[in-house]
Amino acid sequence: MNFLEERIVKDGVVKEGNVLKVDSFLNHQMDIKLLNQMGAEFKRRFADKPINKILTIEASGIGIACIAAQHFDVPVVFAKKSQSINLDGDVYVAEVESFTHKCRNHVIVGQKFLTPDDHVLIIDDFLANGCALQGLIQIVQSAGATVEGIGIAIEKGFQSGGRIIRNLGYQLESLAIVDGMDAETGHIEFRSQEKDREEAAEESANSVSRSSTLD
Amino acid sequence: MNFLEERIVKDGVVKEGNVLKVDSFLNHQMDIKLLNQMGAEFKRRFADKPINKILTIEASGIGIACIAAQHFDVPVVFAKKSQSINLDGDVYVAEVESFTHKCRNHVIVGQKFLTPDDHVLIIDDFLANGCALQGLIQIVQSAGATVEGIGIAIEKGFQSGGRIIRNLGYQLESLAIVDGMDAETGHIEFRSQEKDREEAAEESANSVSRSSTLD
After folding, report:
1. Which of A43, A59, A86, B35 is geometrically suited to a Cys-Cys bond with B67, CB 3.0 to 4.6 A?
2. A70 → chain B, closest CA residue
3. Cβ B28–A74 below 8 Å, yes or no?
4. Where are the beta strands (DSSP E) in chain B?
5. Reported ipTM
6. Considering only alpha carbons, which residue of chain B is nearest residue A101?
7. pLDDT-derived band of residue A103, with 50, 70 and 90 as boundaries?
């Protein structure tokens, strides 16, 4: 287990309905030293990417993104969530569905903060079905900017978001991938990150060979 | 002018209705190096306080609070805003009025994240009428914790929030206090921080002499 998986086992709480509460260290109270370790790990995983901006979404992504930004020496932009659109000036907007709150929200970024010159690392705390993330990707694309990668703290591997985003060809790095949880025993099953990398390498090799076939 | 006032003059935009837009470096796009300077300055101003926790409020306070927390070596808790109260578990709630959005909101913090042992520095990006801040103070008091101080990036000195909070006896440190703005010329008038300190010292002396009279 890596440092984040260890912390989830120590302080996370599994609740009925596949809910994992990490509010004592990640998204209500925030352990800044842990966030700093996460930032260093994101930097390691995206070391070869020409990232010049981090994009996240309010509210719980902001702390992680700001601490990570120190490792990349770049500014952070956070997308705003709103049911209505009333930011003044020109904005990029994506409509996303929230399963948690059973409603549709707008994700909004001021146009002047994303340009075709931007090479963006998207950071968020959780990835489940990936709706918010797809909204952020859509906004980066609307700006003509480049998504260099996506860094997530905790991915719910048993939901479809991660698979969809990886299938789209993005480098998605989740520091902990939860493949299953048991509210009765409190047991949390993590995906082996090494296995994950091997699979990714294999998929990438397959895709290369497919491309070769197509050529 | 200090570093933040200089930045406001350089990149802030004054709009009609006493609106100061600082979204290019503070509360939409965030300059993390600037946030780090602000954190160091908060540490200098609250150096003698036994702070063990920083409390802020979503969304734009979170980045400032997280970077500042590195200078204090403490965790951050961010209060959540909600029109309804549906966090599970026991929470502290304060009702606050939002002048910007013309509505009433609830400010919510999980009870387990604030205890009587906590010595809290409250941090936020803006102080105008002080409603959100009063909600945060109320929550710290509900928990039996101590407000050791309040650190604000930009205070609108022509609104009443700062005066009310200082009159209540709190150490309120605003890195930039805007006493007036002109949307036509773009001119921003800052309060001299030295003058401010002298006045505070004088008031404190008066209050001591008043107390002596009362004794």
Report:
1. B35
2. B32
3. no
4. 13-15, 19-21, 29-30, 53-57, 76-82, 91-98, 103-110, 119-127, 146-156, 172-181, 188-190
5. 0.89
6. B86
7. confident
